[in-house]
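Show me any protein, keeping tokens residue-aligned.
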Amino acid sequence: MNFLQSVFLGLVQGITEFLPVSSSGHLAILERLMHFEGDIEFFNVFLHIGTLFAILIGMQKDIIKLLKALWGMAADCIYNTKLFFESGSLAREPHYRRIISNNYRKLALMIIAATIPTALVGYLLNSLASKGSCSLLLVGIGMLISGVLMNVVSRVKPRGKLPKDVGFLPAFITGICQGLAVLPGITRSGMVITCGILMGFSTRLSIRFSYLLSVPAVIGALIFELSRISAAGTVSVAFLGCCAAGAVSALIVGLFVIHAMMHMVGNRGIGAFALYCFAIGFAVILLSFMI
């Protein structure tokens, strides 16, 4: 692998990670066609680090508000607990603080509720996903499945629910769907957006939820992969340089795509991405029989 190839793959990662078209599927196709030399999984970890920082920067306002919400809930829980134990000595009924008092507090708990099934499903399917990513046929089939799901949901009128209107069960189910996206060709953002809309989320909330929910998922996957890689051996300095170039490329492009995606899908839906997944899925299936 050379510098230009790593930058190109970083561009692809930065674009496809934030569009509902399966970044892992595109990388699997291109790395196969480019006869990738080196530790593919190690290189992909760096690409995901790049897009993780793109989310942290591009969604920083939401992330800061979520962190403040978690801190506020923790503080209120401590206050209420203290008040409970002191209530016996109070002359009047204790006035407890409301824990889930705004949309960001509810959204923070929804992310936690969704992350748990994502971790479980992702862990259970990890071995199957690693083997399946080597098959272009399975990647193509996964893209067709993604296209079907998005085509169905593009015909559903969003009900426009905000976090305060949504229960924790829809968040849990959405987390399961995100976990299934470890399978080759299945788009993670597409699965979360699709499931969110079907659960009644507004389109913009579905997109925001998709991006924010990816943060703990990507961090967990990176920890898992880095622990595996650390036991696998070392890599050359030149290869590390290519990995860093790919990560920076993914970061820069990802920032632009995040802002474009919020506007584009929020106004036009995901029907066009369904057509793209159909086209690329059939093309990859045909390609799998040719190489």
